[in-house]
């Protein structure tokens, strides 16, 4: 019996236990404050404007000539709004672009990469990432991406955890063709990477329900609100041609509003200015219970709140989630978002803008490793952060509304949309669409003229399917390996991996290419320790600590920390509401079973009823688990029973039964005793 | 009864192959010598002899310049039975010595393509030592005996399968040439049931060559290939009427086997633009009690041995003899060798096609799983995964007459992981396969088959897709289907002449269309 140690191991990233403080009063009623703020006139001025009537004070902007800034800040400042020198580097015959341009092209939705497995001169290519709020992909765009992958890419498409496509392997000489083709086919890559708002997530399910439709519309509005305005994207890729759809008037109004000193007046980029944001910025919108978007891992999480009739009333807002970190730098850490407050539905765009501006003005720009919003909030605390945001928002946040428990929803398989049509969620391992599966998927989307949605779990949903098409679509896709969820190993359903080798410059070891074998090994360990096939854990693997496949929310996260070596993180859960913690460093891939076998065996033996692996590891504490692993000698072999298959005729059986009764036994027991005696007396060939 | 008079004249015409057989010292020479040379191929005479050993010499007809020779090897698996050990062996051999794929054939056997001459002995020896055989898979003798592949624990099915195995044993060559060449004379036979030995040795009615190493086949063997299928009433998964001999178990009201109905004279091969060659359905010859089945089969084989044409191989099949003589004369000659009169044919219920795809109960507490394999071609990820499952769960398998595979003796607890693992490799439950594909078949054709005129296996996926598009266009529902079979030549290996829609290659990218088969 092991001695238990008091309390769980301390976490490497302690979280402040901040309680939400309810303001004692409001200076203005919400209606009058809103009307007053919204309608205030802006005086013409060559400097930042102030309204004559101030609802709240604007934070003072200190500006000193000696402030330290990272190199990227210089690139942005000198780029004429994300143009130069990218526009010139694009015109040269060189296969690559300069360092400054590699930073700028990110804002356009592309990364320069090279195949790190090739020796000799680098073969450069570009990865292109699309922007698809809610993961929405029109039929036209899907077919276009499919073609582009074959003509200019590596023949595959990848679905990402941010509900976007990634296209790998595009050469510089083809970049303009590819970008323009995407733009002209209802697509965009603007802001898919870079220091600005990234793709806005929302549940991908095309459910005809007020809450889902409202969440998705809100996601699209937020994406439009925070889209760059200075036109650099269209200047470079389609020679200035404008391809924007009309925006809802409330988006235009919210963007232009400068009642509380949020905007750079008269700037081509009223929200971003010349410097844009300090770092990437991620927003997700969802409805209560549906945590398919991993809400707590975003800089801003927005949750629709409805009244008893199912009418949307407003939103709860979380802030400060983020997954990226750097190995062996304990001051970097993954963080869960925490509640900021509630806003009425008509104020959501203003609230989001205020949060973004707070980060724009106060996020660190000297060291990019600490530039994310989560570090600002950790540094200030949520109260100070809320106070500053409210100055830009022009109101107080209301108290956070109570929410039901979060659930993970995969949306795989066939479902009713609610309008008489169906949608079909397809599991795509690691989101990689290629080969026969790609060809067949394209055939189906084209033949039935379907739209598609990308899910935050790297899967795809076919939408607006008529009932009569269900069977041929199911069959055709099944033959290409796109199976109903019942035919996918449960481990694969929830597993995710980032692309890693050979193209990602951050990768330390394998993720996407390694995960099939790792899952198979995990399944083999499950079998060995007696876990049923229907059981599963959330496994996520990344080749580096940057966290793109969200390993820090996994029940079992593997984070590359050396060649064929991973940190093991434990403690996330299936609902995506618990942060994992680092359990072991530098575990070699070939030693994986030495850690997993005792852990899974322990879980099987000691778990409480229906307790998940992640919850189990949290409850037991890491010190106890490590001790168990060190002492592991293999599973206890239960004594096995063997069947001699003894059959007797009726007379013999009845005679045995009679004799057994004399000894107060049943016939079987007596027969076994006779056999045991026979074996004992004849052992080693010694007959009596 | 009197033995038919044997007329022997010095001027009888015989085909070249008859000369090769006669001079071969029972299917040995010159194959045994050609195998030892460094040449990548073997001589014409040896190419005929190696067929009896279960192999064809082939070359890739799409390559220009010198021919790159290889050998196709075909196994013998009565009822399509494949032990776990043999399956794993074939999987390995395909990777080590073949083209990396296995093919399941309409005769319930494996085909292994691409084996080089220098590796032939290794491959053959390995198959023999792992519970397998290729003896008689090709050549002028009894081929693989078919029976329903379903491992149902039912008296009629078990009896049909046992009978198929007994017939296969009865008609297996006896002179040992196979083991002499491939395992240096080592004998690796399982013991035979005594009734098989007795039936083979019986010479009461002049069937046997006394004191010959081949009492049934003699030096000349049969005039041509010979195909036998055994089944139970209603179950026509074996395509009973396309065989030289079709044997149907007849059971009494208690389900106890009593005897067999026998059909004769089926056969699919023909030659284009030669109207005197034709596919033919077998017709009833009569009923025999169960204890007489081996004697009846032997009598039919001997009748063909003695009377089948040996001058022109295009007309050597049993079907031409029966067409020429008529069933009455044929029956009476067979009865002379059988030593009895056939009883009247027993009434049978309607035939049905049974695919056995998907999960089914065996009847002994275990399950079997029928998997659709397009054209019987096992390769790539599917081959790798199938092997993993068969190895992990220690399963035996069966090959079906529709080029599919059945995993047998599966415990209930294994059902879901097996279903899932195989589905991910493209081996799907029948509900997820296009109904057109379920019943479609094609022969290997290009690039290795020397008879091929145009595409079959490689062309069929696109042809089926086009057929499905036409269905959609004319408004036929997805659940509707027709039996489509495609062969690259008229030889009929995928039985296109029984298809509702048969495409038979008759020129480059050109087919005869055959209609009117019933499923």
Automatic annotation (TrEMBL), chain A:
Reactions catalysed: hydrogen sulfide + 6 oxidized [2Fe-2S]-[ferredoxin] + 3 H2O = sulfite + 6 reduced [2Fe-2S]-[ferredoxin] + 7 H(+)
UniProt subcellular location: Plastid, Chloroplast stroma, Chloroplast nucleoid
Domain of life: Eukaryota
Pfam families in the cross-refs: NIR_SIR (PF01077), NIR_SIR_ferr (PF03460)
Domain Nitrite/sulphite reductase 4Fe-4S: 222-397, 493-631
Predominant cellular place of this UniProt entry's protein: plastid
GO CC annotation terms, alphabetical: chloroplast nucleoid; sulfite reductase complex (NADPH)
Any single GO BP term: sulfate assimilation
Keyword Manganese on entry: no
InterPro entries: NiRdtase/SiRdtase_haem-b_fer, Nit/Sulf_reduc_fer-like_dom_sf, NO2/SO3_Rdtase_4Fe4S_dom, NO2/SO3_Rdtase_4Fe4S_prot, NO2/SO3_Rdtase_4Fe4S_sf, NO2/SO3_Rdtase_FeS/sirohaem_BS, SiR_ferredoxin-dep
GO molecular function, one term: DNA binding
Keyword DNA-binding: yes
Class of the enzyme per the UniProt entry, highest EC level: oxidoreductase
EC identifiers of the protein: 1.8.7.1
Residue ranges of every copy of the Nitrite/Sulfite reductase ferredoxin-like domain listed in the record: 125-181, 415-468
Annotated keywords: 4Fe-4S, Chloroplast, DNA-binding, Heme, Iron, Iron-sulfur, Metal-binding, Oxidoreductase, Plastid, Thioether bond, Transit peptide
Cofactor(s) essential for the protein: [4Fe-4S] cluster; siroheme
Complex and partners: Monomer. Interacts with ferredoxin.
Similarity remark: Belongs to the nitrite and sulfite reductase 4Fe-4S domain family.
NCBIfam families membership: PRK13504.1 (NF010029), sir (TIGR02042)
Role this protein plays: Essential protein with sulfite reductase activity required in assimilatory sulfate reduction pathway during both primary and secondary metabolism and thus involved in development and growth.
Protein name: Sulfite reductase [ferredoxin], chloroplastic
């Amino acid at each position: 019996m092991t001695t238990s140690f008091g309390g769980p191991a301390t976490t490497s990233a302690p979280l402040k236990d901040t309680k939400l403080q309810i303001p004692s009063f409001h200076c203005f009623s919400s209606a009058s404050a809103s009307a007053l703020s919204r309608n205030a006139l802006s005086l013409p001025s060559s400097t930042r404007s102030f309204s004559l009537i101030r609802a709240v004070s604007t934070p003072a902007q200190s500006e000193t000539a000696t402030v330290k800034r990272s190199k990227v800040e210089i690139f942005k400042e000198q780029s004429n709004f994300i143009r130069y020198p990218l526009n010139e580097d694009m015109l040269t015959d060189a296969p690559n672009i300069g360092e400054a341009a590699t930073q700028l092209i990110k804002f356009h939705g592309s990364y320069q990469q090279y195949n790190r497995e090739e020796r000799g001169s680098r073969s450069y290519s570009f990865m292109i990432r699309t922007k698809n709020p809610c993961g929405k992909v029109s039929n036209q765009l899907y077919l276009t991406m499919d073609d582009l992958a074959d003509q200019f890419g590596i023949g595959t498409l990848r679905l990402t955890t941010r509900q976007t496509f990634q296209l790998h392997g595009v050469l510089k000489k083809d970049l303009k063709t590819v970008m323009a083709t995407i733009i002209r086919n209802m697509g965009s890559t603007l802001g898919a990477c870079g220091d600005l708002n990234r793709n806005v997530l929302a549940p991908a399910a095309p459910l005809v329900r007020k809450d889902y439709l409202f969440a998705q519309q809100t996601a699209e509005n937020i994406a439009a609100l925070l889209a760059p305005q200075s036109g650099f994207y269209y200047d470079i890729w389609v020679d200035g041609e404008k391809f924007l759809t009309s925006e809802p008037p409330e988006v235009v109004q919210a963007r232009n509003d400068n009642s509380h000193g949020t905007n750079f007046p008269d700037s081509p980029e009223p929200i971003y200015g010349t410097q844009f944001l300090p770092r990437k910025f991620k927003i997700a919108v969802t409805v209560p219970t549906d945590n398919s978007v991993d809400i707590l891992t975003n800089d801003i999480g927005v949750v629709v709140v409805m009244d008893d009739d199912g009418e949307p009333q407003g939103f709860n807002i979380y802030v400060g989630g983020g997954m990226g970190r750097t190995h062996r730098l304990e001051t970097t850490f993954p963080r869960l978002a925490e509640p900021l407050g509630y806003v009425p539905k008509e104020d959501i765009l203003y609230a989001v803008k205020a949060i973004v501006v707070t980060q724009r003005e106060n996020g660190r720009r000297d060291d990019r490793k600490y530039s994310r919003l989560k570090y600002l909030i950790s540094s200030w605390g949520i109260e100070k952060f809320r106070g500053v945001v409210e100055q830009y928002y022009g109101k107080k946040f209301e108290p956070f509304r109570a929410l039901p428990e979060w659930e993970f929803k995969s949306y795989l398989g066939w479902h009713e949309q609610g309008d008489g049509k169906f949608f079909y969620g397809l599991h795509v391992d690691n989101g990689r669409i290629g080969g026969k599966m790609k060809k067949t998927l394209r055939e189906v989307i084209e033949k039935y003229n379907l739209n598609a949605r990308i899910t935050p779990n790297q899967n795809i949903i076919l939408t607006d399917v008529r009932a009569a098409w269900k069977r041929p679509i199911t069959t055709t896709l099944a033959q290409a390996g796109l199976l109903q969820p019942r035919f996918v190993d449960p481990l694969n359903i929830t597993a995710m991996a980032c692309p890693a080798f050979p193209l990602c410059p951050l990768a330390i070891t394998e993720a996407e290419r390694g995960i099939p074998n790792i899952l198979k090994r995990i399944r083999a360990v499950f079998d060995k320790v007696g876990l049923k096939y229907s059981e599963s854990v959330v496994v996520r693997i990344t080749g580096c600590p940057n966290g793109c496949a969200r390993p820090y929310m996994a029940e079992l996260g593997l984070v590359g920390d050396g060649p064929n070596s991973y940190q093991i993180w434990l403690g996330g859960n299936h609902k995506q509401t618990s942060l994992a913690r680092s359990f072991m460093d530098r575990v070699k891939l070939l030693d994986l079973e030495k850690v997993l076998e005792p852990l899974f065996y322990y879980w099987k033996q000691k778990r409480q009823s229906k307790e998940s692996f992640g919850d189990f590891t949290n409850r037991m504490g890491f010190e106890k688990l490590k001790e168990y692993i060190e002492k592991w000698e293999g599973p206890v072999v239960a004594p096995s029973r063997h069947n001699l298959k003894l059959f007797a005729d009726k007379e013999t059986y009845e005679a045995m039964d009679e004799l057994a009764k004399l000894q107060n036994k049943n016939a079987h027991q007596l027969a076994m005793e006779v056999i045991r005696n026979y074996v004992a007396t004849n052992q080693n060939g010694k007959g009596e | 009864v009197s033995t038919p008079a044997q007329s022997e004249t010095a001027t009888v015409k015989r085909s070249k192959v008859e000369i090769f057989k006669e001079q071969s010292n029972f299917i040995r020479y010159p194959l045994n010598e050609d195998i030892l040379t460094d040449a990548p191929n073997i001589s014409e005479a040896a190419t005929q002899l190696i067929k009896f050993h279960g192999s064809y010499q082939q070359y890739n007809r799409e390559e220009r310049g010198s021919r790159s020779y290889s050998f196709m090897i075909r196994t013998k698996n009565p009822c399509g039975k494949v032990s776990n050990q043999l399956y794993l062996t074939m999987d390995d051999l395909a990777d080590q010595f073949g083209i990396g794929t296995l093919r399941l054939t309409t005769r319930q056997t494996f085909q292994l393509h691409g084996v080089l001459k220098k590796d032939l002995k290794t491959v053959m020896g390995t198959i023999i030592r792992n519970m397998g055989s290729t003896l008689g898979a090709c050549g002028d003798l009894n081929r693989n005996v078919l029976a329903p592949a379903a491992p149902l624990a039912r008296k009629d099915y078990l009896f049909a399968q046992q009978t198929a195995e007994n017939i296969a044993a009865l008609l297996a060559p006896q002179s040992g040439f196979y083991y002499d060449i491939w395992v240096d004379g080592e004998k690796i036979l399982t013991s035979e049931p005594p009734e098989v030995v007795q039936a083979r040795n019986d010479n009461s009615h002049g069937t046997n060559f006394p004191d010959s190493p081949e009492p049934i086949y003699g030096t000349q063997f049969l005039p041509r290939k010979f195909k036998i299928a055994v089944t139970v009433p209603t179950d026509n998964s074996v395509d009973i009427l396309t065989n030289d001999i079709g044997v149907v178990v007849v059971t009494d009201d208690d389900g106890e086997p009593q005897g067999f109905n026998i059909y004769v004279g089926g056969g699919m091969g023909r030659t284009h633009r030669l109207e005197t060659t034709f596919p033919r359905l077998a017709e009833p010859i009569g009923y025999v009690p169960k204890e007489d089945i081996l004697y009846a089969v032997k009598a039919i084989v001997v009748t063909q041995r003695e009377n089948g044409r040996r001058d022109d191989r295009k007309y050597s099949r049993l079907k031409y003899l029966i067409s020429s003589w008529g069933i009455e004369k044929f029956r009476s000659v067979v009865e002379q060798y059988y030593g009895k009169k056939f009883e009247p044919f027993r009434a049978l219920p309607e035939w049905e096609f049974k695919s056995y795809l998907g999960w089914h109960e065996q009847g002994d507490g275990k399950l079997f799983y029928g998997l659709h394999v397009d054209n019987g071609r096992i390769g790539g990820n599917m081959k790798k995964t199938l092997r993993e499952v068969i190895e992990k769960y220690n399963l035996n398998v069966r090959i079906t007459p529709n080029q599919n595979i059945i995993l047998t003796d599966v415990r209930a607890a294994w059902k879901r992981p097996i279903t899932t693992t195989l589905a991910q490799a493209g081996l799907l439950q029948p509900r997820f396969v296009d109904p057109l594909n379920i019943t479609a078949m094609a022969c290997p054709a290009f690039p290795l088959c020397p008879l091929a005129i145009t595409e079959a296996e490689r062309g069929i996926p696109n042809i089926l897709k086009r057929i499905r598009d036409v269905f959609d266009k004319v408004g036929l529902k997805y659940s509707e289907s027709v039996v489509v079979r495609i062969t690259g030549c008229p030889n009929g290996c995928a039985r296109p002449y029984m298809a509702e829609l048969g495409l038979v290659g008759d020129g480059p990218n050109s087919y005869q269309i055959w209609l009117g088969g019933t499923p």
